[in-house]
Amino acid sequence: MGSRDKLLNEWAGYISKTAGSGALTGKPVAISRIETVAGPRAGALGLLAGLDAGKLLRALAKNDAAALRQFIPWEFKGEPVVYMAGRYVRVEAGWPDKLSESLIRLGDLGSRPKGGGRWTIGKNEYGRTVVPGLNDKTPHFLISGATGSGKSVALQSALLQLCQDPDNLILLADGKYGESLGRVAHLPNVVGPVAVDGPGARAALGWACQEMRRRYQNGNKRGKLVIVVDEFQEWADDKVFVGLVRKIASQGRAAGVHLLMSTQHPTVSAFGDPSVRRNLTGKIALRVDDADASRVAVGSNQPRADYLLGAGDCYAVAPGACHRIQAAFVDDREIGKAGSGQHLFEEWPEYEAESVGRDLPRSGRQRRSLTHSEIGASLVAAMEGEGRPAFKDRLEAEGLGRPGSDRARTLMTLGRNVKGWLESHDVTLCYLDGNGEEWGIGTVTD
Known about the structure:
Number of domains: 3
CATH topology of the largest domain: Rossmann fold
Radius of gyration: 28 Å
Distance between the termini: 92 Å
Structural class: alpha/beta
Helix content: 25-40%
Number of strands: 15
Strand order of the largest sheet: 6-5-13-12-11-7-10-9-8
């Protein structure tokens, strides 16, 4: 630590002397106060220059921070950054490997927060543990980061901690077929399987909207329902999915229903609806690919998330606060030690627009009455002892369409109940093919 402080003091001295001599701006600029910050991955200075702060900022940022680069007294990593942070001109530069703390384990950060939708994200520049929370100020979070940034680990770390609260429920949807969230799908209090396709995501979020409505109606808001959607941009063109997300983002806070939305590619269009992005007031921005992605990830032009160093280096942003943090690392062993739970659902109930709300877009698969052909097929399936996959195949082969899991379950239950009632009344059943046009009861004899 001593060598880092020494280097920061040298850096501060170079800038102060050059600014005071007028060499930076053409006229002397007095820097009245300099704050040095020895962060885990980067060193930083806060320069207080009063009314000359704008001149100092422009001089240090000019020509891709050409002057600033000359002042840094170490072989810095990545790109140096200069921006306004409150009244200070803030400059940052990455430490070389020998001075960097690039691996901080979650277990090394002391006790973890219990309850309240809080979790430990990592260690900030002042050596303090940073604990964000799902609350009125930050009801929903956007987590952004390109490949190699540490986004998946940061997301898994949050889930590992949030699932330990027995009052919480966790819902998972992954636009990359469970590549990231599949590793944590077994954790306690996870409600159901990871939704990995459009119908599954609509079904899972549709259930979440129903749960949100129940909480409003019943006044039961104990614990939190945390909805985690990784790589959500994969469903940005699905109007039903976007409508469900918009509803949760705008109405979930008061019901204790919260979103953690995560993506490698933060763009304005990725959200499908601008109101979704506006409601994600909490942000964890790891390294992204370019300045445009950084503006979305951070929520403003500065600081630049595309200048971060990867492997957990991030900005945690909330209204009125921004911390540069080294995110805590968790591995498979720690995830495995968290134990496992039993899902409330083995399959998500089929999404039906009427059960969620009329203000949402209509799905292509809406509730409709059962046809005679389907009822007949359900009775045949009951007589043949078929399971749900075979029953779905039967309906599809007969040109009746392939139903969702919820509709298939309803039909199969109906068929078994009818078969049981008929048999209890000594009715012998047989059925006719119908020449491929329709399944039904062929003859009933008694």
